[in-house]
Every structure is written in structure tokens, then in C-alpha cells.
Amino acid sequence: MTALIMLAALAIGLVEGIPLGKQGQWKELAVMSILLGIAFLLVMGYYLGLPSPLVLMERLLEPVGKAIFK
Amino acid sequence: MAEKGIINTKQFVWMLFIIITPFAAMQIPGMLIMQAGRDAWLSVLSAWFLDVMLAIVYAYMGLRFPGENFVQYSITILGKYLGRVVGILFPLFFLLVCTLVLRSLSQVVDTVFLPLTPFNVILVTAFLVSALIGRKGIEVIARMTEILGPLYLLSIVTLSFLVLPSFHIARLKPQFDQGVAPFLVGTPLMLTSFGVCIIMAMYIPLCNRPENGFLGKLSAVSMGALVVCLVTALSVGIFGMEDAQYMTSPGLELAKMINFSNYIERVEMVWLLILVGSGILASSSMLWAFGQGLAQIVGLKSYQSLIYPGALISLVLSLISFPSGLQHTNFFHYTFPIMAAFVETGLELFLLMAALILHKRGTT
Amino acid sequence: MKMDKGCLTMRKLAFIVVCISLLLTGCWDYQEVDRLAPVMAIGIDSIPGSKIILLTVQIASPEGKGGSKRTGQQGGGGEAYTVMNSEGKSLSEAIHNLSTQSTRRISLSHCKIIVLGENFAEAGIGQILDELKRDRNFRRTDWLLTTDKTAKEILEKDIELEQVPARGLDLILQNFTTLGRVLPMNLSDFSARLNEESKVSFSPLVQLEDIDKQVTSQLEKAAGRSLESAGRPKTLTISKTAVYKNLRMVGVLNEDDTRLHRWLIDSPKGSSIKFTYTPQSPTEEVQGEVMLNIIDGKTSITPQISENGITMNIAVTVKASLSETGVTGVDVLDPKVVAQLELQAAEAVKLQLEHTINTAQKEIKVDYVDFAESLHNYYPVEWKQIKDNWDDTFPTVEYRISCDVEIRNTGIITDSTQQNESEE
After folding, report:
1. Residue C70 has pLDDT above 60, yes or no
2. pLDDT band at C67, cuts 50/70/90?
3. CB atoms within 10 A of CB C198
């Protein structure tokens, strides 16, 4: 799964990145790379056993939700 | 190139409607019945009313800051830095909604229709299609919803009529059996799902007639409320509240119940079409809004290149956050409403107050 | 430049095509029809031992051209169905165990009939309800039947005119939904009723009856000699109702009670009223069986709580057509006579309803007449106090029946001309 995600990230980077680079939209390229990097980090984190941000959010907010809802 | 597409009011209405539909088609009615019991349909109505109230705020802000969506006007109101911090919450929220919607969609498809197909395959396919549509821009989404929206509304209403013979009004009685508390608790749960329509703030600047924003939202959310109301009331009236509250998708069970004079039966595929179609369109709108919002915060010229990476993050999130469907449902039930209430009402009201106090308004 | 752009689009298109051909093959869930064993009905019995569930499935075999047996042409491809059995600790285990003997994949999505054997129903059906509701293949529209025999015996029986018996049962129950004396029960309603306040549900009772033998012996008595009989096999009949309370079968309603029970909780529509007509004026010495067919009707149960306790007001309105006056020589052209007929029919209905409710209160002592639910609907606050000892309260609940019969038409003739010679 991890490998597939990385492959997908690479593919997106190539397909989207090359035209951006050709047109000189460096800022766009940078933001896109950061996003891909985040995806990469998330997968790596999961691989290393770190909780996902949604899980963290759940730990924070679920008690509130359970207090309100049944 | 930022989004240059222009949508008309009709498209605006159907886009909002199709964002509510997947919520009606998936777990929300079940959760609502769990909270509000037989009063669930009343909760839908009160949530509808509150959401219309909220829409006034959004429509007013859309008019106060003409040509700007909430990402842009939060920068206008709060300044360059704080505005960006607040503004980025909206795109992130949309990404989260996309994650949740596609995950629940795939879950239903996986457990009910394609049990042998690996879950990830369904999920990846759903993401691929949404990203593809989202990247094509708002006009593509708008035109698709313009065709599919009426179709979905019509089919849901037709399905509701077909299932009526098995409806027992006695199972909806008595109302307010446990007092008004369940009804009051059900309202915010439903409101947070309707509240995803805050995406209207992204659409208003692109409308050819922004002053119709409120009316558009009103009609969209009324249709959406009708659909959710039908599904909840019918599933309580048919399965009884005790059974309906634990269903993963009451609407789907309703479609399975249809046996109209032994002639029309096994029509749950129609429900599947509604579920998948609206779910994917809603998430592509979400992805589009994420890309657009993020591009505006960072100040990019184009947002298209951000759609695929956004979809990838969303996919990764939905893969790594929930080990099973149960966790996902729990997240949807307990965590999402809190977060959504914060973003949808808290943040926007805060922006409104700030704009009023700081006397900020948009340039015409 | 233009060339470049075209090239790019082509490359993208190729990328998408590759992705789609990899991802959208749809090969995971394919099922060949000729590799499927479509289960049409399942039956559940309980057996002693550790594997307490005996599952009987009736599988339609598409190749078998049924009916050949009945038309007398042997070798027309065999039976249209086969029956298989398997055991298990639970229903799903039994279903899994079926695969040890089936050459084809067991497909439960066409199952329409669920038969519960008597032993099993009396021991408690809780453990299978969960599986029936959880499994995506079972539908909540599946009919639930109980039998006073074992489910295996029922599912092994042919039904005349139908190739697959499950289909025959399905058709019988479908007919019952519009007109009939037994209230058919699907899984959804069954489960919803069990969840309701009284925790009572019911299902039709399917029986095996040797109608041929009964009829022949009756005829023999009448004729006074022994008759030849073709010896037709036993027949499946559905005319009674099994009552469940707290997931256990607690009693069986007989035919009359079943019919009136349906009147009470559903509607009288499709049923009939049979009573003996006694004319008002003593000069006419006509008397005889009259039958009314009910065209339309409505029953409502309204509870009333007062200082004296709980009273249920049962109001029945019936629109009927005259079906048979027998030999009575009833003059239906006389409005007075019709009014009299209506009154007497109402009286008959009232008596029968009282009998049914008495059975519920005094014999079975289970609230299968929906009193609890209507109390809960009309008096939700008071219900919370009554609720806890409802089982003790129910037999003492007072009820008042008002019945209103209206004869809408008299069939295609008015008075009948042929009467018994005694009438002359």
C-alpha cells in the first residue's frame, strides 16, 4: 500500500509537475510538492506507527461528542 | 489561471443539493434516529430552519464582500497572517469532508454490493473519479449536477412512494416520548451535515447573480431536507426506530424493502446509483473547493495542479485513519459534528462579528 | 505548440486508460449463473447435541424442468428443486457448512421464505434474527413462516401447480396481502413488532394436512361404502397464526381467531362475515346461513384511561357485499331486512371479536391484539407506569367493541327464487 501511494505521488508529481515547470509556475510547483510531501509523510508516519491527524483529532474531540450525543 | 468558470443560479441550487444527498443516502439518517428516535424527522426540520438562518449570514457575507469567497474575505477582514490561518481551515475542512464521504460511500458499496472486491480498490476508484472531475473545474461539476441533481431528487421521491405500502404510521407514534431532549440533540447532528453547504461561500463569487445566493441555498437545502426527512420518517415508520437506528444505511434498506405489487422489486441498484453518483460529485466539489481555497491563500495563479495531490492526501487520510468501518462511523458520529459545528457556524459567525466590528467590507 | 498539447493530452489519456483498465476490471464479484445454487427457501429446526441448528435449504435447479412428474412424463430433466441439510451451532455456521456438499456457490439473495420449525420456535429464535438482519443477502421482505411440524418436512413437500414449492408459498402469501384471512408477516414487520412495547409478534403457521384422506373418509361416511382414492400427497396449508412473545413461540391461534386477529390489527378487508340470520317478525320462519364479503373496512383501537382503569374502544366499520343468502329467502329488496342483516352481521362480528380478545386475555395471556402499542401511542406518559406490569394488567383490561356493517350491494342478483320446498 505504502509503495503504491508513493508511486502515485511520483506519478502525480511528474504528470502535473512537468507542465508547471515548463510554464515556469514555480510557486505552484512548490505548493504541489509540499502537498505530495505531506501525503508521503502521512504514509511514512503510518508505516512507523504514528497516529494519523484524524485520530489525534478524534482523541481530542470525541469526549465532547460523546458528552453531547448518545 | 484561477477559476474563471461562471455558474448560474440553477446550477448553484443543484450543486448544493447534491452535496446534501450523500449524507441522506448514507449513515446520517441512522445516526439521527439513534439520537432522536421517533422525532428524527422533526430534528431534520429544525436543522433545516437553523441552516437557513445560517445561510443568511453566508449570503450576507457574500454580498458584503462581492467577488470574494470566505477564504478571501477572511484575509480581507483579519489581515494577511491571521486571515490566512483562519482561512486555511475552510479548505482543510472540505478535504476532511471529501475523505469522510468517499470513505463511507466505499464502505457501503463494499459491504452491500461488492463484498469480494477489495475495499481499497473501490476507494481508490472513487477518489480517482472525483479528482478527475474536480480538476476539470467548477463548470464541469455544475453541468453534471444540473443533469443528475433533478434525476436523483426524482428517484428518491419515487422510491419513497414505492415503499409507502409497508409504512405504518403507528411506528412513528408517540412523538416526544422521551421529552424534547432527543429532538434537541438530533438537531445539531443534522445541522452539521446540512452545514457542509457552507461551500456555497465558495460558489457565490462565481455566480452570475450573487444576490440570489440566499434563495438558491434556501431551495437547495429545502430539497435536501425533504430527502433526509423522507428517509428518516420512512425508515422509522417501516423498520421501527429500534431497528432503524443501527442500520448502516437506512435509505438502502428502504430501497430493498420496495416490493410494489410484486412487480417493482430489487431496485436497490437505483439507490446505489444515487449514492455513488452524488457521493463522487460531492467529493469532487470538495476537492475543487480545497484546491481553489488553498491556491487563494498561498496566492497561486492556478489551482488545478493542487487537485490530485489533495485527493492523494485525502486518500491517504481515509486509509490510515480508520482501521475499520466502525471507527469511521464513530468518527462521523462523535467527532465530525463538533468539528463541523466549529468551522461552519463558529468560524463564520466570528468572521461576521469581526467584519462588523472592524467595519471591513469588500471593494466593489 | 499545438502539436505538443495534443501529445500531452494523448499521454494523459493513455495514463487514464491504463489506470482504468487496471482498476475497473470488475472481476472480483462476478458470479456465473450456472455456478450458483439459488436458495429459494430456508428452514430452521433445532436438534439435540452441540450443533443445535439444522438448516434445510430448498435450492431451485434451473436445468430441472419441473412439472414433468405431475404430467406423467418421466425423464423431463428431474425435479425443479433439491433440498439440502446442514448442521451448525448457529445459522451462519450452518450456511457455511452447506458448501461441503454443494458443487455450486450458495446464493441466498433469492431466498423469499424462512420457515421456523416448532421445536426451534419454542426454544427461542433470538439467535437467528441477528444473522437474518445482518446478512446482506437476506431481505427484510422475506416471508416468515412457522410450522407445527419441522421445517424440513415442510420444505420437502411439493406444492400443486408450482414447480418450486418456495415459489408456491410466496404466491400464497402474496395473495394473502390483499385478500386473505391470515396476516402474512415479513422479516421487517416481525422484527419491528418484537421491538415494540409488548414484545409480541406473530407469523402465519404452515401445516401439512392430508386433505385427501380427510375428504375421502368424510365421503365414505356419507356414501356408506368405501371409496377409491387416488391417494394424493399431503398438502401445505396456511390458515393459523403462531404467536411469539419475547422471541419464543407461545401459542397458536385457530382459524377463526386468526381471521379476526387480522381484522383487529390490520383491516377486515378481504375477509368475510358468516352468520345465521333470524328474521325479526316471527311470522316468517326463514332462518339460514348468510355470508357477506367484505369490500372495505377499517378497525381502530382507541384506549381510554379513567379512574376505573383502562378501556379499549374498538371500532370496526365494514363495507360488505352480500355473497350468499342460502335457503333463507331473505328479501333484500326490503330495506328493513337489509338493516336487520347489517345489525345481525355486526352482532356476529362483535361476538367473534370478543372471542378472539378473550383468547388473548384468558388463554394465551399474551397481548397480540396491539393494546400495548395503542396505549403507548395515546398515553405515552401513563404508559410508563403501566408498562412494567403490563403482562399482569393485560388480562384485566376492559374493552368495548362497536361494529358497523354496511351492505353495499347484493351481488349480481337481488332476491333468489329457488327456495327449499318447506318455504312453500
Report:
1. no
2. very low
3. 23
Of C19, C140, C192, the CB nearest to B128: C19
Contact B302, B1 (CB under 8 A): yes
Kindly report, residue by residue over C180-220, the tens digit of the pLDDT: 789 999 999 999 999 988 889 999 999 998 888 888 888 88
Please report the number of interchain residue pairs, chain A to chain C, with beta-carbon separation below 8 angstroms: 4
Which domains, ranges and CATH numbers included, belong to chain C? 32-253 (no CATH), 267-424 (3.30.300.210)
Q: Is C253 helix (H, G, I), strand (E, B) or coil?
A: strand
User: What whole-number distance in Å separates Cα of residue C381 and Cα of residue C376?
Assistant: 8
Q: Give one DSSP letter per residue of C110-169, joined into a string.
A: T--EEEE-HHHHHH--HHHHHHHHHSSSS-TT-EEEEESS-HHHHHT---TT-SSHHHHH
**Which has the minimum average pLDDT: B162-176, C61-75, C89-103?**
C61-75
- Using the beta-carbon criterion (under 8 Å), do A27 and B300 form an inter-chain contact? yes
Asked if the model's pLDDT at residue C225 lies above 50, the reply is yes
Q: pLDDT confidence of B280, banded at 50, 70, 90?
A: very high
Neighbours of chain A (3+ CB pairs under 8 A): B, C
B249: CATH: 1.20.1740.10
**Residue C182: all three cell numbers together:** 391470515
Q: How far is CA B109 from CA B252, B336, C20, C29, C323, in A?
A: 11, 22, 18, 12, 53
Work out how many domains chain B is built from and give that number: 1
Q: What is the mean pLDDT of residues A48-61?
A: 89
Give the three cell numbers for residue C227.
371409496
The region, left, alpha or beta by phi > 0 then psi within -120 to 50, assigned to residue C49 is left
Beta strands in C210-352 (DSSP E): 235-245, 248-253, 272-277, 288-306, 309-324
Q: Is the dihedral of CA C364, C367, C370, C374 positive or negative?
A: positive
Contact of A23 with chain B, judged by CB distance below 8 Å, is answered with: no
pLDDT of amino acid C413: 84
Which chains does C contact via 3+ CB–CB distances below 8 A?
A: A, B
Nearest CA of chain C to the CA of B104: how many Å? 17
Q: Could you list the residue range(s) of the whole structural domain that residue B140 is in?
A: 9-358
Contact A61 B315 (CB under 8 A): no
Q: With DSSP H G I counted as helix, E B as strand and the rest as coil, what are the percentages for chain A, rounded to 5?
A: 85, 0, 15
Stated as kind and residue range, the H or E segment containing B243 is helix B213-244
Chain C residues lying within 8 Å of A19, measured CB to CB: 8
CB contact under 8 Å between B170 and C377, yes or no, is yes
* Residue appearing with cell numbers 339460514: C288
**H or E element that contains C87:** strand C81-88
> How do residues C286-337 score in pLDDT, each as one tens digit?
667 888 889 888 999 999 988 888 899 999 999 999 888 876 567 788 888 8
pLDDT in tens, B92-126: 999 999 999 999 999 999 988 888 888 988 999 89
For an interface test with C, give the residue of B106, B109, B121 to mutate (most C CBs within 10 A): B121
Contact residues for B181 (Cβ-Cβ < 8 A; gap 6+): none
Residue C31 scores a pLDDT above 50? yes
Query: Is B317 an interface residue toward A (CB < 8 Å)?
Result: yes
